[in-house]
Amino acid sequence: MKISEHFNREEFTCSCGCEFNTVDAELLRVLEQVRTHYDQPVTINSACRCLEHNRAIGSTDTSQHVNGKAADIKIKSVSSIGIYHYLNNLYPDCFGIGIYDSFLHIDVRDDKGRWDNRT
Ligand SMILES: [Zn+2]
Ligand SMILES: [Zn+2]
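# zinc ion complex -> structure
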């Protein structure tokens, strides 16, 4: 089911089979911004996660993924650091943005968080 111009609800669904897929509207707006800026498909590696699945993959209970407020994304022809700089310039004082080797984490938390988990 389409929930915005370029995204389907299925792309956000928890991968454990529980069907949790309630996406935060602000997150969806930011993802559409990225999609429009680069004019490239945005692949969502992981978005909504129920607490059980989030624990199973070793994440913390405070992860924004549990609230449907986070997405791990990838754009084929753009580096994670490139997307990081784009978002950090747009939203210098808020949201959570984390760089990983193969994806970029973005969440719409109330305060600000930045991290670099590249190996
Ligand atoms: Zn689940
Ligand atoms: Zn994440």
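# post-check
The domain at 9-114 is CATH 3.30.1380.10 (Muramoyl-pentapeptide Carboxypeptidase; domain 2).
The two ends are 36 Å apart (CA to CA).
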